[in-house]
Amino acid sequence: MGRVTDERQARGGRVVVLTILGLLVLVGGAYAVAYAFAADRVPRGTTVAGVAIGGKAPAAAAALLDQEFATRGPIAVTVGGAATELTAEQLGFSFDADATVEEAGGGRSWSPQRLWDYYAGGDRIAPVIDIDDSAFETTLARLDKAHGRAAREGAVRFAKGKVTGVAGRAGLGLDRDDTRAALEAAYVAGSPATLALVSVQPEITDEDVKQALDSFGTPAVSGPVTLSFDDTPVRLTPAQFTPALAMTPKDGVLEPDLDAAKLSAIVRSLLGDKGKPVDATVVLSGGTPRVVPGKPGVDYDPQDISEAFLSVVARPSGERTLPVKATVAKPEVTTAEARKWGIKEKVSTFTTYYPHTDYRNVNIPRALSLINGTVLAPGETFSLNGTVGERTAANGFVEGFVIDGGLITTAYGGGVSQVATTTFNAAFFAGLKDVEHKPHSLYFDRYPIGREATVAWPYVDLKFQNDTPYGVLIETNVQRSTPSSSGVVTVSMWSTKYWDITTTAGDRYNVVAPGSRVSTADDCEPQEPNTGFDIKVYRHFNRNGERVRSETMTTHYNSADRVTCKEPAPKKP
């Protein structure tokens, strides 16, 4: 009896198991069918910005959304009552279709929730928008500038020894968060956007200005500040030092600020020449060279003032003194060095003459005045262009005749070559080293043959070096010409005699006779003929009656045709 019961129970258990297995197979098959039918499609009924993408494969849904957003035009925007348009590119907006579809539930999955979402139906999905913050801020800044009004920050101003407070003023501008939300919503919906201008408060308030005036501004201009250079006081009044003061905003407050370079310039100007070293030099006094002693000056480290000035200037009366460590600034040329130069006698002098013209009577004396008194230390090089400067009206020169390309024309500084030739010969006979000189292209009989020089700014220069062990002082003199007398130019070199200079010249060779021609040019200048030739000049360096060495200079002069100016023939009608 018991064995029969056990067999019946075993058969019943097998039936139950088989039944459950059958149900599982049936449900699994149905689930597999459901999964296969849903595939990776977006849940049914899903919409994005009004576009239905439910039931579509992700790629198809993304393509449909891209097409929809690509066809949208600019956003119509009203800012403070003014209408404008903004493109998605200007706002930095870009639609991410793939991320939006993924957010909507597109994609294959065995998750029961995923299958439930698909068959139960999707929802309205917000599109995924990427925003370029830099582009967005640039556009908002442009809108603020065009339609809003910048807030005026409170400020403290220093001027002419006084201080004034400038009240802040609220402005109008776009609220960044609200504006961003409104424009993003308009972009998604493809609808217009209305942007409100809101009050923009300044960072520096009136209370900040008052506090800055009380703590620094007003005390700063309450009285002078005294700089004590050891025993020498220098008094700075508020009118003098306020150009270097300011109060600048930092983290929402006004803080004292100092223009150290400007303050240093102010202090230097008050020290004046007394605070600067003076080089020793040599001058002619009563026809005799005299050493003018050098003088030390008072110097200081500007940081000694700038680092402490802001604290001192805000102190009360009686405490506004700043000690400054003074140092003695030595001159570059000391009195002892100037005496060692040995400038005591005239070692050369040379004189040339020039025909009367008004422009020469201006240009020649002007150039000589700029050269007169020049001192060359041993080893130093003289440059006529560097000493005289550019020949301009502002520099005291007028227009006159010059030679350009073998033809006579006009330019500022005509006649200065007379100065160059005279100075060159004075240096020649003083035995100074010829560094650079250029003879005229044409020979003029008022100049020594083969020993003359021309100059032209800035490329043609006269340079010579003092290669002697003594200093050289250059003295110039001029006697202006008159309609009945020639002008006289004299240049002398003062030093200690080092060389006895003699000179000889060879015969002219390669002689070229001039021609003649007629010019009808509007700027024609008549020109006398000049014979062209070459010549060698020798400079002999002698000491104690013996020749030490010689130099050779070769000069080439071009020939110049006789130029006759003639009116051009009238044109035939």
List keywords for this structure.
15 helices, four-stranded antiparallel beta sheet, about 575 residues, single chain, Ubiquitin-like (UB roll), 3 domains, about 30% helix, alpha+beta, 36 strands
Number of domains: 3
Q: What structural class do you assign from the helix and strand content? A: alpha+beta
Low-confidence stretches: 24-39, 107-111, 113-121
Number of strands: 36
The main sheet orders its strands as 22-30-29-23
Rg of Cα set:
48 Å
The major β-sheet equals: 4 strands, antiparallel
**Averaging pLDDT over every residue, what do you get?**
84
| Strand percentage | 25-35%
In helices, the fraction of residues equals 25-40%
Number of helix segments? 15
Q: End-to-end distance, in Å?
A: 156 Å
Shape: elongated
InterPro entries: Glycopeptide_resist_protein (IPR052913), Vancomycin_resist_VanW (IPR007391), YoaR-like_PG-bd (IPR022029)
Pfam families: PG_binding_4, VanW
Domain YoaR-like putative peptidoglycan binding: 85-194
Protein name: YoaR-like putative peptidoglycan binding domain-containing protein
Descriptive notes:
With 573 residues, the chain is of the alpha+beta class. The chain has 3 domains: 164 residues, no CATH class; 131 residues, Ubiquitin-like (UB roll); 224 residues, no CATH class. 32% of the residues lie in helices and 31% in strands. It is built from 15 helices and 36 strands. It has a 4-stranded antiparallel beta sheet with strand order 22-30-29-23. Strand 17 and strand 18 form a beta hairpin. About 5% of the residues have low confidence.
